[in-house]
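Issue: ligand-bound run for adenosine-5'-diphosphate - logging full I/O for the record.

Environment: standard queue, default settings, no custom constraints.

Inputs:
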Amino acid sequence: MLDPDLVLILNCGSSSLKFAVLDPESGKEFLCGQANALGGTTAKLVWRYRTQNETQQLARDDDYTTVIRILVDRFDRQWSELRERLLAIGHRVVHGGELFASSVLIDEEVLSAIRSCCELAPLHNPVALEGIQAALAAFPQVSQVAVFDTAFHQSMPDYAYLYALPYRLYQQHHIRRYGMHGSSHRYISERTAQLLGKPVPEINVISAHLGNGASIAAIKGGHSVDTSMGLTPLEGLVMGTRCGDLDPGLLLYLGRTLNYSLDEIEQLLNWESGMTGLSELSNDCRALEQAAEGGHTGARLALEVFCYRLAKYIAAYTIPLHQVTALVFTGGIGENSAWVRTRTTDWLNGHAYQLDPALNEKIRFGAEGRISRQNTPEVLVIPTREEWVIARDAAQLVRGAA
Ligand code: ADP
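Outputs:
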């Protein structure tokens, strides 16, 4: 029998559970899949094992615990060669508050600390906890590790993470900016160093993670010094359905003048805003690009606001970084949309960014590399590998504890 060498990654989101089995050394993926639309009538489990794609329908009341039981059953019957090789389970946890600046082996103390961060991420941390509890019960022999989205940004200085609110709100209730997408931004910083052949401590990176959720980070010598998401993932860039930055007075106006309830405001800002709200069409960047080309005014406007806001953040992050070694695009939009990359850097002509149109067209759909002209500031595209970061942390912690 082979020594255990693989990591199972579990990522419990607000209505999905993503999973994968990876080799933490090479990043090779042996299994990946997800349970989608949990709690709905169209809930299903889809996965790819070896070269086979498969699907299993789920019942409406199947929750995270049930899905993990189904996975255990598959590991016993169909994926047993992987089960025997499981070294660790790595859990993605969105919010670690100020309690976690790095990944940790899970024990009772860690569980209660994650529980204490639930108020900061009510849509995410409770489901991550449910996933962890179910995995602890299902795989009692395998060590488990929590990897936090917020941890990488714990290096931000106080002038970047504090809101200009009464200081006691920070002291008593931990109200401050935390930032998310930490595993992605960390990967981008490390991979940029590799691609440029420089040590991480010597490079300063602006990492733009543009997916349905979007955030940008200023990373100085491998340490996050500022990022666009705040106490929650609502702050910062325009996103698929989230508003990003807005005037907090607007919330008072919605409540007082337009009689919105708190639940209605939460729904509006999280699910009905961003590119969906502006375009009145879709949250999907690809669909919006097609519609804009066809003359759809709302789609064009949504994309323009998205790129303009992004360009403003990129320009702002030259402040903490002084010298920027590279601007990097990642996430579904960053990795694939030549249009968004062009429009954003067009706004930044004052910063001398110049894309090479042929490279910008070419480096898409999983490709990696430079898209700026020779002798102009580096602009790179790097497909993000958040699962690999989780797998590496999990393997390192488990091996270190052995
Ligand atoms: P999530 O945050 O859900 O992980 P992704 O990183 O998968 O999201 O990014 C999803 C976004 O990427 C969607 O807006 C989608 O339209 C966009 N995207 C994917 N492929 C393309 C493409 N070829 N052109 C433009 N946008 C794309």
